[in-house]
Amino acid sequence: MGKYNDSEEWADIAPIPQNDGGPNPLAEIAYTDEYSEAMSYFRAITASDEKSERALALTEDVIGMNPAHYTVWLYRASIIFELQKQNKTNLQEDLLEEIRWLDSVSLKHLKNYQIWHHRQMLMTHISTLPSTELPFLARMFAKDAKNYHVWSYRQWLVRHFSLWDTDEIPYIDSLLAADVRNNSAWNHRWFVLFGQHVDPNSGLGMDDAGNIVDEDLVDEEVLYVQGKIRLAPQNPSAWNYLRALLRKRGGSLVECRKFAEEFADVEREDQVRSSHALDFLADCYAEVERERERAGKALELLARRYDPIRRNYWNYRRGLLGLGAVEA
Does residue 85 have an active-site annotation? Predict the structure, then answer.
């Protein structure tokens, strides 16, 4: 008895059951009866390469029970394109209908790679970005502003539809205003501002030498990130962004030394407001031979008081300066 076994629509199909290695498998997976039945019919239609409306409905059923089943997603995509050929329908409309269905699945299963791969594959066949796409991504970020799969997809979307000069940066501004510690938003900001002129197939990163550098843009971003650091001095995302900006134009960390010293004074350890400022200053001082002792002092404060859980790392950094280890 079952949904498919008792259906006249599926009476012509001989289901293919799961073969886990004979009557007494070593490690049989405890599937539900409903899932086992659906997969038995799925194996049967893939064996005969059936592309039909009932096959499409079957994939939806299986995905509802196991949204991470990559093979089912791939077969579903092939069905959609085959049905469009058979029925001579408008492909764009068919794909948009599939995306609308996908929206509900995405909201139900937030952390699922296969869903976003399927969405990306569909979008490669859509000529212009649907007006509903970015608002839907905003809904996803409202549920989880650091969803890796959604951010990866958004980067692809920016590159595929050339959204570099649209509303991406104002949108990132709004996310950082809501949560200045959103490392995913900082990463996307860098991608939008500096990824446009990078060939993704070149093997070069966005901070490699030879990439186009807009000095005015870098200056603006330095001021922007400094403002964000002042809001949350203990936020590593913003400090990393500042480092990347200085490296982007081949500059030295020393140019932001005075700024970092707003948050840490190695001679007044009770007034350190940011361990990340200490780390930054350690690198700044290390660039100047006569400041090596100050660099060592910054690392000592990190090892002894402000980040002792990584004492071994800070001592390693002191060793690179020819200085002794800080004892526990």
Answer: no
Q: Which of 3, 85, 108, 111 is catalytic?
A: 111
Task: Report the alpha-carbon angle 134-137-139, nearest 5.
Answer: 115
Residue 225 CA to residue 193 CA, distance in Å, equals 14
Cβ count within 10 A of residue 291: 18
Residue of 272, 284, 282 lying closest to 314 (CA atoms): 282
User: In terms of pTM, does the model score above 0.85?
Assistant: yes
Torsion angle of the four alpha carbons 327, 272, 225, 235, in this order, in degrees rounded to the nearest 10 = 60
| 198 CB-near residues (< 8 Å, 6+ apart) | 204, 205, 206, 211
**Of residues 35 and 28, which shows the higher confidence score?**
35
Largest Cα–Cα distance in the chain?
A: 86
- SS3 label, residue 149: helix
Whole-angstrom CA distances from 137 to 103, 107, 191, 250, 307 are 9, 10, 17, 35, 37
Q: State whether residue 48 is helix, strand or coil.
A: coil
Identity of residue 267:
E
Cα gap 208→192, rounded to integer Å: 16
Q: Convert the pLDDT of each residue in 250-301 to its tens digit.
A: 889 999 999 999 999 999 999 999 999 999 999 999 999 899 999 999 999 9
